[in-house]
Amino acid sequence: MKAGIRLKLFLVSVALVxxxxxxxxxxxxxxxxxxxxxxxxxxxxxxxxxxADRVAAVPGExxxxxxxxxxxxxxxxxxxxxxTLIRTDGTVAGDSEVEIGNLxxxxxxxxxxxxxxxxxxxxxxVIRYSATLKQRMMYVALPILLKGSRIGTARVAMPxxxxxxxxxxxxxxxxxxxxxxxxxxxxxxxxxxxVLSRRVRDLTEAATRMASGNLATRTRPRGTDEIAAxxxxxxxxxxxxxxxxxxxxxxxxxxxxxxxxxxxxxxVVGTDRRIVMINPALRAMLLVGPEAIGKNVxxxxxxxxxxxxxxxxxxxxxxxxxxxxAGLKPRRVLARAVTLxxxxxxxxxxxxxxxxxxRLESVRRDFVANASHELRSPLTTVRAAVExxxxxxxxxxxxxxxxxxxxxxxxxxxxxxxxLLEIARLESSDLDLHFESLNxxxxxxxxxxxFAARAELKRIALxxxxxxxxxxxxxxxxxDHLLGNLVDNALKYCPPGATVSVSDQGEDSMVRVAVTxxxxxxxxxxxxxxxxxxxxxxxxxxxELGGTGLGLSIVKHLTEAMGGTVAVESQAGSGATxxxxxxxx
Length: 585
Description:
Layout: H1 5-56, H2 65-79, E1 82-87, E2 92-95, H3 113-116, E3 124-130, E4 135-146, E5 149-159, H4 161-211, H5 226-261, E6 265-269, E7 275-278, H6 280-286, H7 297-300, H8 304-314, E8 319-325, E9 331-339, E10 347-353, H9 355-391, H10 396-427, E11 435-439, H11 440-450, H12 452-457, E12 461-465, E13 471-475, H13 476-493, E14 499-507, E15 510-517, H14 539-544, H15 551-561, E16 566-570, E17 576-584
Parallel strand pairs: 12-14
Antiparallel strand pairs: 1-2, 1-5, 3-4, 4-5, 6-7, 6-10, 8-9, 9-10, 11-13, 13-17, 14-15, 15-17, 16-17
Helix pairs in contact: 1-4, 4-5, 9-10, 10-15, 11-13, 13-15
């Protein structure tokens, strides 16, 4: 279990009190012991001086043990100390604590420190344990002088029980003081710890809320101590983080908006080849979701060329290649990869979808090839007819036939150039349509009247089945051209006795117009490509009939330019129906 701040403060307080009391006890006990023993030594020195003077006044110079042992007993009772009278040779002449008959059994006291070091005036003192009395004693010795000569030594001794009792009382007093101090310290430390821990706990809770994202939290510290300074620092930190996060969020939103609105795909991979970021445009190209982030790029895009591109870029080179991305929605993209300086080994790759561009380039190449081919055929025919005409200029019948051939192919070239210019105009931004309300039936009548002579020649019936009340919103010239191309196509391919009819059908805000013929029909295999430029079901027959292969493509462009759609329904041998929609007026 982790120790809380209150327990730590309590333990520190108790430790300080304990250390203080132990230090005080050691110091006070030492001082008290020294002072008491010094006082006892001084007292014993005074007493030993009096005893020495008294012994020096007795004649006999410490020779008669009976006299001096009795004197020692008398002086001991008077002074209240143990008295020992020692001759200059170290033998004991009298001792208040030893019977006279046992004096000779006492060891020589001449080597005792207090006796050997005793000097006049200050004498000598020693504290040691007495084996005789079984307790700690202080010994003070002073020379006994007679007429200036030393005749012996007077030694007094006192047990240090008073000192030990005083020290015991000190220990008891300090023990009670320690208990009281510990109680007071406990109360004070607990109170201080509660106050301090509550403030620290409040700071901790505030810091936790800040760490969890609530940067609006403030500690609002009171006071000027370190905890208040810490609270102020936390508040400043929260304000700084909040400001930084707002800035980062703004930059992130701008970056996210840029990446989301880009048509180009953006991919960022880390050093471990895991996807760090992939924008919506690239996700749409690859048909993957946001869950691709964090996955290995090769698990998302299985493309060896892309892997090689990333490896080359990670090595420090700037790479740009075109990649074919397979899948449900195949794409051809131009990819450019560079190393990220902020993350060595990381790679930023930008993908530009060039699928439509490459398709348009292919269409352009096909268009140029088809147009060249379409122009080359009639020009070759014209050149051959001119050369032949020069050779047969005297034959009027042959000349007329070749002139007719030249005229027919020249018309074909003219029609092709006209249609090419019309296609170019429709695909350019210069197309200017003027929408107006038109009566559909009147427009159909006008178009059919233009082809009446040709239809009568081929014995094909033209029928206007549109409603007289139908009004459409369209460009008059575009609608006329559109209907003319469809009727012209029907007349070209329908056999004698066929019927070409134009009808309409309302569909809410739109009007669907149908041009139906009872001709040979079109195989369903050709229907998806029928509105492509230069596409022909039967190329040989179409050229024979003077078709350019651009008529239906022009129909499609005109219909879409007026906001409608075009379609075809047909089967081989059962005629064809071309429909287009126009806005109802």
